[in-house]
């Protein structure tokens, strides 16, 4: 299980530690390097995509552990669960990043079904949230340290602190991913073995309902008199036609473009009329 734990730890945040190490090269040398700068930009973009998309990291975990289908199923479900959840200011919601990775790994390595794997997502997400809060607390000391460096005119020291302030986020996820797999798979398997069948079936049904909850949270954010008609149009098309999701998405883009053109042309006509 050591090998699998290393794989999960690398996906969870190990590769971000490599990004931080690369970022330290121009900081320590105090020299601009265009090649390294482009590498950092690309890796940071990938990092943002992975951190905010459970589907991506769950699929990568499934690929690394030899079961892409399970990664896609769990990742897409978790993505829908947290689709309306995001960070606002200093408010940190439960973090689905490590949760989706561990849930996928537990499902593949421990033989859990989708419902059982999804059931452990929220507790792990809450635990990851606590780790993030601890990292933010520690970073406040780094901020005060940087204030002292600013008073002393130590620009290099500030650059170093700015580069390594994300180290805590990555190392926390690496530790959680490694320990979760190295010590947790057998424990999870034993717990699953004693769960009655009717509870497992209930967890499967709950897993199917959770995406609806995520969509409900998203609707609360985007709901307005202007957007509701488009929502119901899409709902009716998806329900009463044989169009797949890709076709509906393309149709939605076309409708949005037409709506935008009509809106702007109406505003242009009103301005011409007033003149």
* Overall shape: globular
What composes the largest sheet?
none
**DSSP strand tally:** 0
Number of domains: 2
- In N-to-C order, the SSE pattern is HHHHHHHHHHHH
Radius of gyration: 23 Å
What is the percentage of strand-forming residues? under 5%
End-to-end separation in angstroms reads 75 Å
User: Stretches where pLDDT falls below 50 for ≥5 residues?
Assistant: none
Mean pLDDT: 76
What are the defining features of this structure?
mainly alpha
What does the model show?
- There is one protein chain.
- By secondary structure, the protein is an all-alpha fold.
- It has two domains: 2-222, no CATH class; 224-275, no CATH class.
- 84% of the residues lie in helices and 0% in strands.
- The longest helix is centred in the middle third of the chain and has 32 residues, at 121-152.
- The termini are far apart.
- 24% of the residues are buried.
Sequence-ordered SSE layout with sheet pairings:
Blueprint: H1 2-29, H2 34-51, H3 54-64, H4 68-81, H5 96-110, H6 114-119, H7 121-152, H8 155-164, H9 167-193, H10 197-222, H11 228-240, H12 245-274
Helix pairs in contact: 1-2, 1-3, 1-8, 1-9, 3-4, 3-5, 4-5, 4-10, 5-7, 5-9, 7-8, 7-9
